[in-house]
Amino acid sequence: MWNGNGPYFDCSGYICIIMKAFGKIKPNEDFTAEQLKSKFIQVTQPSEGCIVFFYNTAKTKISHVEYCINDILSIGAADGDSETLSLADAIKDGAFIKIHPIKRERSIACFVDPFQGVE
């Protein structure tokens, strides 16, 4: 989530910014990754505009979320957390917007398509 002190946000905050830009959530709304997962229609394969959710190491909960720029790559806020409150923190933690292959070591929980169906 966005911390309110500057342009610093975690993975779900970044996805919320994208969804606000597309009008898929209201400007004053903010969601965790788990809440975003249940807001949109689940799909079986990634495609441009989908959101991909990843499990934590124990595969017990959603711990990360990214935006699919196509069916191979996703983009997301990575390596920061609620303690990343300044540019110095982001640099120290390597917390930046990054592009990754969708199918990597992390366990994919699911994909949702915010552009399908009615909200």
Give the quaternary arrangement of the chains: single chain
Query: Could you list the spans in which at least 5 consecutive residues all have pLDDT below 50?
Result: none
Distance between the termini: 21 Å
Gyration radius, to the nearest Å?
14 Å
Estimate percent helicity.
10-25%
Rounded average pLDDT = 85
Order of helix and strand elements from N to C terminus: HHEEEEHEE
The CATH superfamily title: endopeptidase domain like (from Nostoc punctiforme)
Q: What is this entry, summarized?
A:
With about 120 residues, this protein is of the alpha+beta class. It has one domain: endopeptidase fold (from Nostoc punctiforme).
Secondary-structure blueprint:
Blueprint: H1 11-21, H2 33-39, E1 41-43, E2 51-55, E3 62-68, E4 73-78, H3 87-93, E5 96-101, E6 108-113
Antiparallel strand pairs: 1-6, 2-3, 2-6, 3-4, 4-5
Question: How does this model look, in words?
Answer:
The protein is of the alpha+beta class and 119 residues long. The chain has a single domain (11-113), classed as endopeptidase domain like (from Nostoc punctiforme) (endopeptidase fold (from Nostoc punctiforme), Alpha-Beta Complex), CATH 3.90.1720. The protein is 21% helix and 28% strand. It is built from three helices and six strands; from the N terminus they run ααββββαββ. The chain has helices at 11-21, 33-39, 87-93, and strands at 41-43, 51-55, 62-68, 73-78, 96-101, 108-113. The chain has a six-stranded antiparallel beta sheet with strand order 1-6-2-3-4-5. Strand 3 (62-68) and strand 4 (73-78) form a beta hairpin. The longest helix has 11 residues, at 11-21. The mean pLDDT is 85.
